Amino acid sequence: MSTDRARRVEVPSDLPSEPDLTDAHYTSAFELPTPTARSWTPEQWARAVFEGAPLALRGVLLTGWTAVLRLRLGPWPSPKHILGRPIAAADADSITVTARSRLITAYNIVLVRDASVVWTTVVRFERPVVRPIWGAAAPIHHLTIPWLLQRARRDAPPA
Q1: Residue-wise burial string across 114-131, b where 16 or more C-beta atoms lie within 10 A, e elsewhere
Q2: At what angle do helices 42-50 and 130-155 cross, to 10 degrees?
Q3: Nearest to 62 by CA among 33, 80, 82, 48
Q4: Which residues contact 17 (CB under 8 A, 6 or more apart)?
Q5: What pTM was estimated for this model as a whole?
Q6: Confidence band of 67 (pLDDT split at 50, 70, 90)
């Protein structure tokens, strides 16, 4: 298992066509170096990160998404959703999950490369009231996503 930590990186230029970054209010990307990246599909990585999170953390995520951000989520478990977030697009190298509300539109894009996994978050505020809410949530996001990526890597099958 690699001891390299997930770290914040520039948002990749090779993201799938969705989402449009020109109207994004927030973007971030975290890269997890791992020689076992291709041992899972992008969907498996996304599920390991969100659905494999500890129960208490999943509860915090779902509460924040639904009660605070008012995101409309689908069923879980579901082959068309990841922790309730609809799969918008998927191919051999990436998956995009989305969620929308009157307050925000949010995307998470997982890119699987030969030796790393890159998790990108793109958020567009649909109402100005979201700016301070996201300002409070962003530092938590910056800690949680790298931790969840590293936790998922622990469970990934060998290359």
Answers
A1: eebbbbbbbbbbeeeebe
A2: 110
A3: 82
A4: none
A5: 0.92
A6: confident
